Structure formats: C-alpha cells, structure tokens
Amino acid sequence: MASKQLNDIVYSVLDLATVVQGKTPADTFRNSMAVAQQAEQLGYTRYWFAEHHNMPSVASSAPPVLIGYIAGGTKTIRVGSGGVMLPNHAPLVVAEQFGTLATLYPDRIDLGLGRAPGTDQVTAYAIRGENMHAANNFPKDVARLQTLFSADNWDGKVRANPGEGLDIPIWILGSSLDSARLAAEKGLPYAFASHFAPAYFLEAIKLYRENFKPSAQLQSPYVLACVNGVAADTDEEAERLATSVKQLFIGVVTGKRTLLPPPVDSMDDIWNFYEQEAVEQMLHYSFIGSPQTIKNDLKNFVDYTQVDELMITSHIYDHEARMRSYRIFADVLTADV
Predict the structure, then answer these.
(1) pTM (2 decimals)?
(2) Which of 1, 61, 181, 281 makes the best surface tag, with the fewest CB within 10 Å?
(3) Is residue 180 part of a domain?
(4) For the stretch 273-292, what's the b/e string if a residue is b when 16 or more beta carbons lie within 10 angstroms of its beta carbon?
(5) In terms of Cα–Cα distance, which of 127, 159, 148 is closest to 62?
(6) Which residue numbers delimit the Luciferase-like domain (predicted)?
(7) Alpha-carbon gap, residue 13 to 36, rounded angstroms
(8) Least confident interval from 50-59, 65-74, 119-128, 263-272
C-alpha cells in the first residue's frame, strides 16, 4: 500500500452551526461566514452544513438556506450539505432547492445525502408524519433525485426546474454498512460520520472500496472521513479547549443537551466514569493538540485509512480560538511532509 502524504489530502470543513453559551444563532451564522471566508483563503475545498432538528446547540436545521448564505459570501470554496436527511424531504423539493443553489453558484454546490432523521423520534414524527418509514425508501429516493437532475428527464411527467441537467455532485453520507453498500453500488463518493459514530468506520470504508462500481460521476472509490479537530499552539491549550466538546457530548449521552459551554481546567468533577467512557468512544477520531501533535496523529490516521479527504469539525467555544485551530490544520496539511 502506497504511503500517502498529508499534502496529498483534500481538506474541508463541516459546520454544525454550534451555538455557544451566551450567544445566539445570529452570532453563530456570522461566525460561520468568517470561518468560511478564512477557509477559502486557506485552501479548504468545501464547507458543509449538516441537517439537525430540535437541538438547542445546533442551528443547522435548514442547510439549503445556510448554503446559499455562505456561497453568497464566498467566491470559490464549494458549499454543500453534509448532509440533507433525504427521508425528511420529497426528492423533488430537494432537487429544486439544490437546482436553485447550483444555478446561483455554478460548479460550487455539493449535495450530501443521509438516511437518518437528524433528530429524536418524536421530532422525526413531527417532520415526517405518516411517512415515518421513509428511510426504507432511501435508495429509491436517491435514484429519483438522480433522475430529476438528469438532462434525460426532459420529457418526464415530473421535472425539477431549476435542477434538470445540472451537474450537482451527489454524495452518500453514513455511519453504517448500509450506506457504504449503497455508495459502492451507485458509484458515488462516500462520506463517513466518524466524528461521532466511529464504530463501523474501518469496516464500512473497506466494504465500500471492495464493492465500488464505477459510474458517470466517479471512476474509483473516494472516501471522506469527518473528524473532530481542536488545534492550538500547545497540547495543553488544545486539551483545555477540547473540554467544551466533551461537555457538549455529555449532553448527547445523557439527553440533557445544552449550548456549547466554555472550556474548563479539568473534566474530573463534570463527568462520571460511564459518561467519560461513552464520550471518549464517540470522540475516538479526534485530533487534539499542538501543530506537531496534530501532524503526527493525522499522518498515522491517513497512512492507516488511506482516506482521500479529511473534513474537520471543531466545537470550540471561543471564535478566535476556532479560527486559529482551522489555520493550524491548514498549515499542517499543506506543509511538506
């Protein structure tokens, strides 16, 4: 297996539009624009938003709206969904929304598709109603979307205007083997949610690569791994900054969700043994530390997984510290190795 260099890796941003304590979603969106504009300058390839609902700390409930906002404030970086939870929406509506975005911002829009509801079951019912089993139709709905985007659908009874005939890259997102099989079967790029669901990551990307069938969109398998990233000038400062995301994930584990809290000097009095075990398992693929530590850890990760792209998500309380973290990752990933 050939060794990959860090400067061979495409690098991107996943933004969950995290709301921090003492701030509002309006503050979050302004900060997202600043991060996206900096990311564009630093050579990040894409900037994605993920669809979530009924989560006070996550303001990305409407990815197409945020995609339009960020694309309008940038010039070259690709902007997209990581992802749109397709069973929550009619394929025609998604095709029209992303067709509109791709018409406004040509060759810059990505459409990542997920199967999960992006929320709890009660909220999922509020979204889907009697269509609660829509996830079973996910493969067919992906195919419907591909048809709606196709120029060959010009004589179809249902057409996406705008959307028809546009070259909008579709990605399959997932955290399971089912998503890997679908991405392989359809010959689509595969983005794995290893930033919070690491359990099946290695097995899924192996299955995807071994079963990949070339398509018009993609000739060979392409793996994107989403990971957590907290970089600072020293390991100690990075570890301190990372206590914010650890506290946030305690809320995920316990169901007691809060806005992103400020960092603390020690987690010892905040979590118990079981919460710590659960949080650390979910955050297994996290890169926390100084530039040298980040470089070493990323090199090992890339050598072992052979991923094609890293998508970094950073839950950092202080906006300037978050901006600094993304600058460090860009420096590490573009330096001669």
Answers:
(1) 0.94
(2) 1
(3) yes
(4) eebbebbeebbebbbbbbbe
(5) 127
(6) 21-300
(7) 8
(8) 119-128
